[in-house]
Design brief:
six-stranded mixed beta sheet; seven-stranded mixed beta sheet; 2 domains; Aldehyde Dehydrogenase, Chain A, domain 2; globular; binds nicotinamide-adenine-dinucleotide
């Protein structure tokens, strides 16, 4: 029997006033697991009104009171972790033991980190030209945020907005994708338990229409968007004058240089391509291998790919589950067909795996001699594929790495410290990881893109949830 879910709206659990719902279908076996209501325009207005009241109240709290709230949320999440992780696997498809549990186990860090950061978020005393004036700055909440989030990390990405948002006194209305809202709704029980002010967080699942209603809503002050560059461009063209954090697609290169530990590079590249079935913004999307080590790398990558065990994501032995949705699988089909037509050579895998309970199980795939013009190289594939692209030397490798607008996270394998800096100085990416996977991630890591794939984020994370307010005092009578 599918579960009937309520949405979390203005501090209440409700079916809303809309007359539509969405059927949640598990990618694991195509079964109908739950029904979720879609918020009506009236529900959205209610969420915005309650959010405004909540941020007006929290604006007056001290930073230490807001930090306390975040710590209470972190504590309230703990007992919910196994159930949130189970639901995440059910609706998203990632392996329960090796991925989903780890993912959710760090959910509390988004709140405990924000609690630490906000206590150290001070203003400045600004020197003035007049002797009789004093000038100070304060950090104030921006107000009401709409966080529009993707399905690949359905819980933790919304928390990147909710944690620092609440810590700085904002209210956050999250719009998760219509087909992966359940695990986040389960986590919202922690907001009730921790005493989050009514309306400071609402979770209203929906598709592009609900997203657009938030983006264009006059009561929303700021947009937090994590998703594809195509949707990001649409949102920017629709949002008018609103603050925003836009985190978009990646086409992460791993560069294997002539002096690399080739086996370590192969293990890391395979991991970066199969973790979460490749559905990660900083996945290893391209492996650029300097010609001297090409044959050794390819041999090592084929051997390393034995670690991939495609199957039921609730089985302990499984290291890769199904893809989340048909659009992603169809994109993989297109990219592989295009690369083959252009002369690339498929060494491992190459398509959908038969004999599974849904059509979304995709074989881990290694493709060699991928021409740079193929979509496997020029676009984000977002699936379990490791494309190998040849480079004549280091200069050629950097040039290939930089031929993208999606410069999120890159990796370089080298034994030379000076070469590590040489590459880092030249690669246009938000992060360059030396001798590890592009898929490296910590909750406190400054994270953002270069070359046009984000606007903001990074070390200033908590500051980006604030407006700078200046106070000027005339000390008349001096
Ligand atoms: P998507 O752009 O299709 O959807 C993202 C969100 O936008 C969803 O909630 C969706 O319902 C909503 N949306 C879609 N159309 C909209 C519209 N017209 N107006 C308002 N909202 C709209 O992305 P996706 O397929 O869910 O996620 C995968 C993408 O996200 C990949 O490109 C991946 O690289 C990127 N991503 C980036 C990061 C990062 O930190 N840079 C992290 C995770 C995922």
């Amino acid at each position: 029997m599918p579960e009937t879910l309520d949405i979390y709206l203005a501090g209440e659990w409700t079916s809303g006033t809309g007359d539509t719902h969405h059927e949640l279908i598990s990618p694991i076996d195509g079964s109908h697991i739950a029904d979720v209501p879609i918020a009506s325009p009236g529900d959205i207005d209610r969420a915005v009104t309650a959010a405004r009241a909540a941020t007006d109240e929290m604006r007056r709290w001290s930073a230490f009171e807001r930090a306390e709230l975040c710590l209470r949320i972190a504590e309230a999440i703990e007992p919910l972790i196994p159930e949130i992780a189970r639901i995440q696997t059910l609706e998203q498809g990632k392996p329960y033991h090796s991925e989903s549990l780890d993912d959710i186990a760090e959910a509390n860090e988004y709140f405990s980190n924000a609690a630490e950061d906000v206590k150290r978020l001070g203003g400045e005393v600004i020197p003035t030209s007049a002797r009789s004036k004093r000038m100070f700055t304060f950090r104030r909440p921006v107000g009401v945020w709409a966080a529009i989030t993707p399905w690949n990390f359905p819980v933790t990405i919304p928390l990147e907005y909710i944690g620092p948002g609440l810590a700085t006194g904002n209210a956050v209305i999250v719009k998760p994708p219509v087909h992966t809202p359940w695990a986040l709704l389960e986590l919202a029980k922690a907001f009730d338990a921790a005493g989050v002010p009514r309306g400071a967080v609402s979770i209203i699942p929906g598709g592009a229409e609900v997203g657009d209603a938030l983006v264009t809503h006059d009561g929303i002050d700021a947009i937090g968007f994590t998703g594809s560059s195509a949707t990001g461009r649409r949102i920017i063209s629709r949002m008018g004058i609103k603050r925003s954090i836009m985190e978009m697609s990646g086409n992460g290169p791993t560069i294997v240089t002539a002096d690399a530990d080739v086996e370590a590079a192969a293990v890391a590249a395979v991991y970066g391509a199969y973790y979460n079935a490749g559905q990660v913004c900083c996945a290893t999307e391209r492996v650029i291998v300097v010609d001297d080590v090409h044959d050794a790398f390819v041999e090592a990558a084929v051997a390393a790919s034995q670690v991939v065990n495609l199957g039921d994501p609730f089985d302990d032995a499984t290291t890769m589950g199904p893809l989340n949705n048909e659009a992603t699988a169809a994109k993989m089909d297109r990219h592989l067909a295009d690369a083959s037509e252009r002369g690339a050579e498929i060494l491992v895998g190459g398509g959908r795996a038969p004999g599974h309970p849904s059509d979304l199980y995709y074989d881990f795939t290694i493709v060699d001699r991928v021409p740079e013009a193929s979509s496997l190289s020029t676009e984000e594939s977002f699936g379990p594929v490791l494309p190998v692209i040849g480079a004549a030397d280091d200069a050629d490798a950097v040039a290939i790495a930089n031929r993208t607008r999606l410069g999120l996270q890159a990796a370089v394998f080298t034994r030379s410290l000076s070469k590590a800096f040489w590459y880092t100085d030249r690669i246009r990416a938000g992060t360059v990881v030396i001798n590890d996977s592009t898929d490296f991630w910590e909750t406190f890591q400054p994270f953002g893109g270069a070359a046009g794939t984000d606007t903001g984020w990074g070390r200033g994370r908590i500051e980006e949830f604030t407006d700078l307010q200046t106070m000027v005092i005339e000390l008349s009578g001096d």
